[in-house]
Design a protein that fits this description.
alpha+beta; Transferase(Phosphotransferase), domain 1; five-stranded antiparallel sheet; two-stranded antiparallel ribbon; 39% helix; flat; ATP binding; RIO-type_Ser/Thr_kinase; Kinase-like_dom_sf
Length: 292
């Protein structure tokens, strides 16, 4: 097919050879199947802000930092340049998260390049080499539902240990891929791969990270609970976050799905000190911005 204008620069740079077909058009991007030498990959073209149905809510963009102080000031002021820089920062958030999570061993597509607002990455496929289906397009036996749910809960833990919360995890952005066999396995097997990470947030630096993680895990519980009803009573989200906050969470931490909240006394003086410190820090930041 004829290459879309946004992919033409990648062809000119030699990053892709040909465009095979459009794979999907989502709320924030369009994805194309492309050929790169002997390999088939996918190219994700991010839509401009005014063409996206997803908006950069404060929940997701809070505490996302840019290294350039001029860009940071422009983003705070909301100028045209600032909006352009915010757009670039939003797009690079998924790229950064993909590289970070792939290095941590999380099941995400392998990223290859990011050029001119286009993310070039692995095409996740099924056993026949076709694009892998989303979970919402697949029905599961109770046994498979329990297996995939356990796998994804472990992936959420692995992500959190890498400092990342997906923020929008559901059956609509998880693919059921055919994964290669591990050591000792003669053949591969079907397993979930997590996609769509532009909403990913820093677990330690975002005040909404806890709520997002609980929602992500609840989405997994509710979806797989359709096929294995006993999953509906599990409380993996609160258990995971409690262990994380306590510094006790690792990739090997055994989970039970049971959570009993503790009702410790609240240190109101400490809370008020935190509020005062935050207010002072904000006032100092505003003074620095005004001076700059």
């Amino acid at each position: 097919m004829k290459a879309p204008p946004r992919l033409q620069s990648l062809i000119e740079e030699g990053l892709i050879d040909t465009v095979v077909r459009q794979l999907m058009s989502g709320k924030e991007a369009m994805v194309y199947v492309v050929r790169c030498g002997d390999e088939t990959r996918c190219a994700k073209i991010y839509k401009e802000a005014n063409n996206r149905s997803f908006r950069q809510a404060v929940d997701y963009t809070e505490n996302r930092k840019v290294k350039n102080s001029r860009s940071a000031r422009a983003m705070a002021k909301g100028s045209k340049f600032g909006r352009q820089e915010q757009e670039a920062a939003w797009q690079s958030a998924e790229v950064d998260a993909l590289y970070r999570l792939a290095a941590a061993g999380v099941r995400v597509p392998q990223p290859y390049n990011f050029h001119d607002g286009v993310l070039l990455m692995e095409l996740v496929t099924d056993a026949h080499g076709d694009a892998a289906p989303r979970l919402n397009d697949v029905s599961f036996t109770p046994e498979d539902a329990r297996t995939h749910h356990a796998t994804l809960v472990a992936e959420v833990v692995r992500m959190l240990c890498a400092g990342v919360v997906h923020g929008d995890l559901s059956e609509f952005n998880i693919l059921l891929a055919h994964l290669p066999g591990t050591e000792g396995e003669e053949v591969g097997h079907d397993g979930p791969v997590i996609i769509d990470l532009p909403q990913a947030v820093d677990a330690a630096g975002n005040n909404h990270a806890q709520r997002m993680l609980l929602r992500d895990v609840a989405n997994l519980r509710d979806f797989f609970g359709q096929f294995a009803p006993e999953l509906r009573t599990t409380q993996y989200g609160p258990e995971i976050w409690s262990l994380y906050q306590s510094g006790l969470l690792s990739n090997e931490t055994p989970l039970t799905g049971i959570y009993a909240p503790t009702h410790a006394d609240v240190d109101m003086q400490a809370v008020l000190r935190e509020i005062d410190d935050a207010r002072d820090e904000d006032a100092a930041r505003r003074l620095r911005m005004a001076a700059g």
